[in-house]
Amino acid sequence: MPEDPGTTPRLPDLADPHEVATALVRSLADGLYVVDAEGRLAMLNPAGERLLGYSEAELLGRGMHAQIHHPDHHGAPQLEVDCGLLGVLKSGGTTRTESDWFTRADGRVIEVAYSSAAILRKGTVTGAVVVFRDVTARSAVEQRAQQLTLERTEAGEEWQRNLLPTHLAEIPDVDIAVSFRPVGDNALVGVDFYDV
User: Are strands 124-134 and 188-195 parallel, antiparallel or unpaired?
Assistant: First the structure.
């Protein structure tokens, strides 16, 4: 019998709702881990294992903050009181960041974006779930694009200054400023300002 178009689509009927939840978590492309109320690992999905370089068994029962939460990009320690991942265990809320640092099992540091939410049962925080992804490559591309824009702007300003007649700079009470700015991916606009 065809489904009524007004009904909500359903997940495939499996024998056990726990089986459905487990299949969904294990199928995610993003890393996902669950900690108990003390921040100790209770579960790590396969994508999380690949991203962190640890098996779930290696981390089970360990405090995730101490195990993977790297000092910030300046090398300052990430204190537990400042840790957004652990903060949701105290607040019962959620947090999200686009740039933080995790340390892999091999010691390599990866930049991650993550969201974290407390798990509540009858109003009591019993743990938290963290979904994360490696953004190291994306961040490197963004930094390189910013560097190229800066270099292009500086080169454009130098070029623009070289086009100015040299005798104008020798006239008293004449100030000259040059500005060269990107206006898209492949375009620059240069402007000369003369204050007489």
Answer: unpaired
- Res 89: pLDDT: 94
Handedness of CA 29, 19, 68, 118 (dihedral sign): positive
Task: Give CA–CA dist 89/35, Å, rounded.
Answer: 9
How far is the C-alpha of 99 from the C-alpha of 134, rounded, in Å?
10
Instruction: Name residue, tokens 């726990």.
Output: 18
Amino acid at 145: A
Token duo for residue 52: 């962190």
Please give the CATH topology (third level) of the domain spanning 17-134. Beta-Lactamase (3.30.450)
Structure tokens at 85: 């991942």
C-beta neighbour count of 39 within 10 angstroms: 20
Quick check: 182 and 152 in contact, CB under 8 A? yes
Angle at 104 between CA 140 and CA 42, to 5 degrees: 125
Stretch 38-54: mean pLDDT, rounded?
96
Q: How many CB atoms lie within 10 A of CB 72?
A: 13
Contact 92/120 with Cβ under 8 angstroms?
Answer: yes
Cα-to-chain-centroid distance, residue 78: 16
Domain locations in the chain as residue ranges = 17-134, 147-195
Is residue 73's pLDDT more than 70? no
On the question of pLDDT at 44 being above 90, the answer is yes
Number of other residues whose CB lies within 10 A of the CB of residue 126: 14
